[in-house]
């Protein structure tokens, strides 16, 4: 868990007169307080501006306000020390929030009414994550290059959302910067993919790569580890079974999103998959002396997984109360009912020179087609193929009429791509990996010539 020390000019002096402040020197409580003060001010001042269409110059606007600890005519007094708060593209992000049905007062209430909760599982990049108390929003610290890349991405992001609201890409609601003690701490507000109020029985971070894609021993010690591609192939060789309509909608959404990411030369992104086992949760509740567990779980209000692939949440289904939580209904290989929560994460990685060097170096040590860092075109194709043939599978209709019309064709389509589904349950990781690699080899030449 990160312990951050928020240092200000009065105690930043060193041999050179000014001491640099690092992320590990910023106290979490002060940073959270500064974020909430800044967002309260910027959203409040934005509400006084008339609604209008988003213009190209709006993507490049940066507003800045100084927060002295003693307060000013524009800002309240506070105990976090002097800091400056910057808001990037406020008009554009207001449009994005409105597009997802987020009202300004609800946005403020979620982010600023209660203390932010720091997540104890920070990302591998060293980013710090906060979640709002109502589970709706995630706040993530980002590096300068990532924030800069997001700014450049905004016009294309705007165009994509106008053309298609069904997307698994992150929903960006705001980009801000806290300046204090000569240090810039940039943060982005996004949708929360995995609500804490819905217990996740399994979690996977999937890239479609097999090179060292296994959870570390340290990760496995956690109560709910985040597993990786090789773990999934071993644990769920038959994949996640989806109804045909949901499978088609999901794969179409993944295809569209990958095409957009490829056009921006983005790669190394992942599909974050959270699995809530409905049947297991029911057994846990019935077996508990003190019930309650997840019965009081909050419903996600914005940008649920089901909305991401179908455009609207389905309020009726066969999962009783759990179908209202925004997860996509599915079944595992045992036939158990599950809800999946998914989204594409880590998209702020452009295939720049350093990534090309990284791929070249890894390709010398491993099979170049299995490493995660790859050309955006090849990466997108491999990502889609893995998700829609290995991770997610289309269930066959049980209706006799459906079987006579489409059952055989479904089997023919799935047989060459999902050979792991027909493998025995005791299949080894090496066998599963070999099948996956055999499938990859069909398009290796296409991937190499696509860049």
From TrEMBL:
Keywords: ATP-binding, Cytoplasm, Kinase, Nucleotide-binding, Signal, Transferase. Coiled coil: none annotated. Residues 1-17 form the signal peptide. PROSITE patterns: PIPK (PS51455). It holds the Pfam family PIP5K. It is found in: Cytoplasm. GO terms for cellular component: cytoplasm; plasma membrane. Residues 398-429 are annotated as: Disordered. One of its GO terms (biological process) is phosphatidylinositol phosphate biosynthetic process. It comes from the Eukaryota. Residues 27-391 form the PIPK domain. Residues 419-428 have a biased composition (Polar residues). GO terms for molecular function: 1-phosphatidylinositol-4-phosphate 5-kinase activity; ATP binding. The keyword Endoplasmic reticulum does not apply. InterPro entries: PInositol-4-P-4/5-kinase_C_sf (IPR027483), PInositol-4-P-4/5-kinase_core (IPR002498), PInositol-4-P-5-kinase_N (IPR027484), PInositol-4/5-P-5/4-kinase (IPR023610). This is Phosphatidylinositol 4-phosphate 5-kinase type-1 alpha-like.
């Amino acid at each position: 868990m990160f312990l951050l020390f928020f240092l200000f000019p009065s105690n930043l002096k060193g041999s050179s007169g000014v001491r640099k402040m690092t992320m590990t020197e910023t106290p979490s409580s002060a940073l959270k307080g500064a974020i909430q003060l800044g967002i309260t001010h910027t959203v409040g001042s934005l509400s006084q501006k008339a609604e209008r269409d988003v213009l190209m110059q709006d993507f490049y606007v940066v507003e800045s306000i100084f927060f002295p600890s003693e307060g000013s005519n524009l800002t309240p007094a506070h105990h976090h020390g002097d800091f400056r708060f910057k808001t990037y593209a406020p008009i554009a992000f207001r449009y994005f929030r409105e597009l997802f049905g987020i009202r300004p007062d609800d946005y403020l209430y979620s982010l600023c009414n209660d203390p932010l909760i720091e997540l104890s599982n920070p990302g591998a990049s060293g980013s710090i994550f906060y979640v709002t108390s109502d589970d709706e929003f995630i706040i993530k610290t980002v590096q300068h290059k990532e924030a800069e890349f997001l700014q450049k991405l905004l016009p294309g992001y705007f165009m994509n959302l106008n053309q298609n609201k069904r997307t698994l890409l992150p929903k960006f609601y705001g980009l801000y910067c806290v300046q204090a003690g000569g240090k810039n701490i940039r943060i982005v507000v996004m949708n929360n993919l995995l609500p804490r109020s819905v217990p996740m029985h399994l979690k996977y971070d999937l890239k479609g790569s097999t090179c060292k894609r296994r959870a570390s021993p340290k990760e496995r010690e956690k109560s709910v580890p985040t597993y990786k591609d090789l773990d999934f192939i071993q644990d769920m060789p038959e994949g996640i079974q989806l109804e045909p309509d949901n499978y088609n909608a999901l794969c179409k959404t993944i295809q569209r999103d990958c095409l957009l990411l490829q056009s921006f030369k983005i790669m190394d992104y992942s599909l974050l998959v959270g699995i809530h086992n409905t049947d297991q949760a029911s057994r846990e509740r019935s077996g508990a002396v003190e019930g309650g567990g997840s019965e009081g779980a909050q419903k996600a209000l914005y940008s649920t997984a089901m909305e991401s692939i179908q455009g609207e949440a389905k309020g009726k289904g066969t999962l009783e109360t759990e179908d209202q939580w925004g997860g996509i209904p599915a079944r595992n290989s045992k036939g158990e009912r599950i809800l999946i929560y998914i989204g594409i994460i880590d998209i702020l990685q452009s295939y720049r020179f350093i990534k090309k060097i990284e791929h070249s170096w890894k390709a010398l040590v491993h099979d170049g087609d299995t490493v995660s860092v790859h050309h955006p075109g090849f990466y997108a194709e491999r990502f889609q193929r893995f998700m829609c043939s290995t991770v997610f599978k289309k269930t066959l209709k049980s209706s006799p009429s459906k079987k006579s019309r489409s059952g055989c064709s479904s089997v023919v389509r799935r047989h060459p791509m999902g050979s792991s589904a027909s493998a025995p349950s005791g299949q080894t990781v090496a066998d599963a990996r070999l099948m996956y690699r055999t499938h990859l080899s069909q398009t290796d030449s296409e991937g190499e010539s696509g860049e």
